[in-house]
Amino acid sequence: MEDLCSRLASDLDGSFPEVVQRFQDEVFSGLRSLAGADAEDLAQETFIRAYRALKEYDSGRIRELRLRGWIWTIALNLGRNHARDRARRPQLIAIDHEIGADDPEPPDLGAWQRRLEALTPSMRKAVVLRHVVGLGYEDIAAALDRPEGTVKADVHRGLERLRKQMEMEI
């Protein structure tokens, strides 16, 4: 990662596509678990903001970045702002369609989303960043601006709640 930061410091325009390529899947996946259908737009905005910020940084600051955690700080801030803005907008009501007796049961695609939404925001972010995105505890702590021990506790408690929810569903 230090090598990528060095290349960014010396050639931002030439090296930034590698940043997008390296992190786009995990940022999208993590934001999908946190923000739902708007994840693609938020992921794109994450990289736009990262690029703009890097344009303003001097090369020494870019070389010292913990790039993965820094990208996730941007993504989580966008996700939090999006959730706050969404909460202020009126909610659309879904129209229920009747399912006939012969129709197959529709798949429950939102089961995991509902389970994750039942967690506290801090637990949800920590669990998603650890087990969906695959970040280490140190990077999660940096992205969330929380102590590493607190992040570990949030992940542990979040997983325990998810386990209990799933046991109750059986």
Q: Would you give an account of this structure?
A:
The mean pLDDT is 85. With 170 residues, the protein is mainly alpha-helical. The protein has 2 domains: 1-90, Rna Polymerase Sigma Factor, Chain: A, CATH 1.10.1740.10; 113-170, Arc Repressor Mutant, subunit A. Helix 1 crosses helix 2, helix 2 runs antiparallel to helix 3 and helix 3 (39-56) crosses helix 5. The chain has helices at residues 2-10, 12-35, 39-56, 59-64, 67-88, 111-117, 121-133, 137-144, 148-169. The chain has 9 helices and no strands. 76% of the residues lie in helices and 0% in strands.
Largest sheet: none
**Low-confidence sequence ranges:** none
The best one-word shape is: globular
CATH architecture heading of the largest domain: Orthogonal Bundle
Beta-strand residue percentage = under 5%
Order of helices and strands: HHHHHHHHH
CATH topology of the largest domain: Rna Polymerase Sigma Factor, Chain: A
